[in-house]
């Protein structure tokens, strides 16, 4: 099998991992990495036995697919360049800064029969994959994504950095249009919103209460779903699902009348799985797990959440 020629643009915290994963794939040739910090690019390239570039355009004509892990404001420009070159792209979330940019990229990909996969890493968590078998018609959802403060990624809000993971998962499970959004959040230690809460109401009647914080004293990634006759709790970090169902019994067990089932999953390498899924989509031309349209849908809700937060904060400052 001929090796797929892949490049990585942006060798920061995430991009470096992309490059390392590709370099270890037997059916992939990592032909180059790109970063404006040429010293960093040279160091990583030397370790991975590939070429380093300072300008992404230097990869033109040399790649079949690319991972774009550059800062979010550059996603559109870089993605458009490669799509117009006929190259398939994996774009780290959020895919763009505006819906208009996302629409342009999706349009180019559709016209050229090209692959856009959006990097929503949590979709490749083994516990998330198993949710499809147990979630039927959720009526109420509560999610918490909390992180100890790090200086990395404070150039965007916690909504676009962390909450967008849960927005994507919830949209994929509920499969309904969002009817209304109520949100609040503040910039506590950075120039952007560091803690946020959003209440999403769907056309089906489902309500999701979504909280994200990057100023927590602990790390936590959990989601709880309630549907008729069942409560489902997911711990993303522990790769565990707890299912509590009504079973009709009146005695015994931790909760009378309820059956409790615990499912534990192997802690896989979600990024490796994500990138291998991208490579498979590029080779087979199959629809990726997280399409450009799905990335746009999550971005649309995230931007609406931010609009609500910014409007509320302006009103607060005007008082």
Automatic annotation (TrEMBL):
It holds the Pfam family GFO_IDH_MocA_C3. Residues 157-225 form the GFO/IDH/MocA-like oxidoreductase domain. Residues 4-119 form the Gfo/Idh/MocA-like oxidoreductase N-terminal domain. It comes from the Bacteria. GO terms for molecular function: nucleotide binding. The lineage of its organism: Bacteria, Pseudomonadati, Thermodesulfobacteriota, Desulfobacteria, Desulfobacterales. This is Oxidoreductase domain protein.
């Amino acid at each position: 099998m001929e090796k797929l020629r892949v490049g990585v643009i942006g060798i920061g915290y995430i991009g470096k991992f992309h490059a390392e994963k590709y370099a270890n794939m037997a059916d992939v040739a990592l032909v180059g990495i790109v970063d404006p910090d040429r010293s960093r690019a040279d160091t990583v390239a030397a370790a991975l036995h590939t070429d380093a570039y300072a300008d992404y355009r230097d990869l033109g004509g040399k790649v079949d697919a690319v991972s774009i892990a550059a800062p979010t404001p550059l996603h559109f420009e870089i993605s458009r360049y490669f799509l117009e070159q006929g190259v398939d792209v994996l774009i780290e979330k959020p895919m763009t800064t505006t819906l208009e940019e996302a629409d342009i990229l999706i349009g180019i990909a559709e016209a050229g029969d090209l692959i856009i996969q959006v990097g929503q890493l949590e979709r490749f968590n083994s516990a998330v994959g198993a949710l499809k078998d147990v979630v039927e018609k959720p009526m109420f959802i509560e999610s918490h994504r909390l992180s100890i403060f790090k200086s990395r990624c404070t150039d965007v809000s916690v909504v676009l950095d962390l909450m967008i993971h849960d927005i994507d998962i919830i949209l994929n499970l509920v499969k309904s249009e969002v009817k209304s959004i109520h949100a609040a959040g503040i910039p506590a230690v950075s120039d952007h919103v560091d803690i946020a809460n959003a209440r999403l109401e769907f056309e089906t009647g489902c309500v999701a209460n979504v909280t994200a914080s990057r100023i927590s004293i602990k790390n936590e990634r959990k989601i709880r779903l309630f549907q008729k006759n069942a409560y489902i709790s997911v711990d993303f970090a522990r790769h565990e699902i707890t299912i509590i169902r009504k079973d009709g019994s009146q005695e015994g067990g931790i909760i009378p009348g309820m059956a409790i089932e615990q499912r534990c999953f192997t802690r896989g390498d979600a990024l490796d799985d994500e990138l291998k899924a991208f490579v498979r989509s590029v080779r087979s031309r199959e629809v990726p797990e997280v399409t450009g349209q799905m990335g746009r849908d999550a971005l649309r809700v995230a931007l609406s959440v931010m609009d609500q937060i910014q409007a509320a904060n302006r009103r607060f400052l005007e008082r």
